[in-house]
Amino acid sequence: MKIGIKKGLITGFALLLTAGLAACGNNNAGNGAAAATDAPAASNAAGAAETTKAPAKDPVELLNVSYDPTRELYENYNKAFSAYWEKETGQKVTVKQSHGGSGAQSRAVQEGLEADVVTLALGYDIDALKDKGLINEGWESKFEHNSSPYTSTIVFLVRKGNPKGIKDWPDLLKAGVEVITPNPKTSGGARWNYLAAWGYALDHNNNDEAKAQEFVQELFKHVPVLDTGARGATTTFVERGIGDVLIAWENEAYLSIKELGPDKFEIVNPSESILAEPPVAVVDKVADKRGTREVAEAYLKYLYTEEGQKIAADNYYRPTLESVKEEYKDKFPEIKLFTLADKFGTWKETQEKHFNDGGIFDKIYVPGGK
Amino acid sequence: MNRSMNVTTTAAVPRKVLPGFGLTMGYSVLYLSLVVLLPLSALLFNSTGLSWAKFWDIATDPRVLASYRVSLSTAAMAALADAFLGLLLAWVLVRYEFPGKRIFDALIDLPFALPTAVAGVSLTALYSQNGWIGSLLEPLGLKIAFTPLGITLALMFIGIPFVVRTVQPVLEDLDRDMEEASATLGAGRWRTFRSIVIPELIPPLLTGFALAFARGIGEYGSVVFISGNMPMRTEIAPLLIMSKLEQFDYAGATAVALLLLLISFLMLLVINTLQRWARKTSR
């Protein structure tokens, strides 16, 4: 019996080892095969170049890893870009989309999801990719406007007729007002909400940090439910009928109204809010490995063209190109907007001070917490 | 225990159904390693980036402690409720014939198959203040969604099959002659139930309870929707793990997970001991 167990264990580990080796072997074989398929493709292309003068490039596939509320935006944009790229270069390009929470998406790319480009909700989530060596230093300045082709802001969604008379941030602290916002620790959008309130409070209290904290702390006392993501909070407010006001991305607020009918909700623009800049970046390591750098860069650059900007604006993101801005100015009313850099500095500093464990947001809930 | 002993003795008889012990044991060890041991050791490995003091700091942060409290108490409450409810369900399924019984029986397993998030969303829709049930209960001052009660409800849903499916076979095997003998000897229904049926059912009930409890501690999908996730009040430990991952704090997330694992392992150990003891005394 005893010998049996020993034998069994040895067999087990032997099998484990062989399985491990086999996996490694497979990996190598896989890489080899990929290299092998690349080579004839290249020679094919060369052959084609010889016979017909216009070299028809092989079709290429891009993966755009994005966050939740951009699903509709990129569905439209990808079609436009494919058409543009094929017309320009003769190359067919298919863009695959992946959507989810911004942080979770960033984690997936860190763990090896081969994204050619990332279009996320926060610079912080792209910084994390930079720290892993997937994206080169200085990604923020690679494209115009801090690499944010479109922007958004934080507004209020209230029930039709605005029964609680909500006009601005201080109204959210009135007795009996219930505020819906997701949890800043699990939602990128919620971090923008929190920072918008904080920035407003700073401006109205001579930049007194303690007063701002008090304001935000009071605000979160009015929050009955902390959903894990922006869509969840929208559902809580819209479908479950909980709360008097939803603090939300402007594009999410517009989308809720479009989906659910303007007879139920209206948007209230606060006197002041934050300029939310969802950034984009090429994942350098993946693009170089897959040889997609050229098309990946073009993909992001095209977001800044008139067509790209219009698609963004049609999907309720604020355009950055002046001509398109002008065209859509009725859709996006002027709000006094401050940027993250204006009030908070970099994402890294903001994250550490406010949202990391032991940061200010934790203190709001744990009185006297560290 | 006795039963498993029997199995090994019959396996030692020269002609075996499965190939030699060495090979079968080898495969078992291999698969156990791949499916359970490797992920668990990766968990340990991930948290080794932390010093002991830091680990303790994270694991005993007031907010983390509060979340353990929520997770453990709601899981225990739900498992307890499931033990009673599951016994009744199993009883009805085993002892009575009624039309649609097979469908009823199949329905029990549904919580196993359903993505838990779907369960969470539908429960929230039912029990929130303007849901079908919630809108009836709220005027009576009974809030369910976004309270620990709501979490318990979600966990009851998730855990019920464990109890039914462990009690059911034992109940089927239960000797009816004993109950009849007890009745002919003049025992009332309650006495028969108490001294003949219940002792036999305690071990499977404890197993069912333990399984439902363990499942409840780690449950995430169904709970995040109905709990409201309020820090210190309805925030569950798995949510804190997620929120640490969101900060790319892998070591911190593992620290919370590890302590949770330890607690539930100890709980299971205690329940297993209880169960063994109950089986011994009932024989």
Automatic annotation (TrEMBL), chain A:
Residues 1-29 form the signal peptide. InterPro entries: Sulphate/thiosulphate_BS, Thiosulph/SO4-bd. It comes from the Bacteria. PROSITE patterns: PROK_SULFATE_BIND_2, PROKAR_LIPOPROTEIN. It comes from Paenibacillus graminis. It is found in: Periplasm. This is Sulfate transporter subunit. The lineage of its organism: Bacteria, Bacillati, Bacillota, Bacilli, Bacillales. One of its GO terms (cellular component) is periplasmic space. Belongs to the prokaryotic sulfate-binding protein family. Its main location: periplasm. GO terms for molecular function: molecular carrier activity; sulfur compound binding. One of its GO terms (biological process) is sulfate transmembrane transport. Keywords: Periplasm, Signal, Transport. It holds the Pfam family SBP_bac_11.
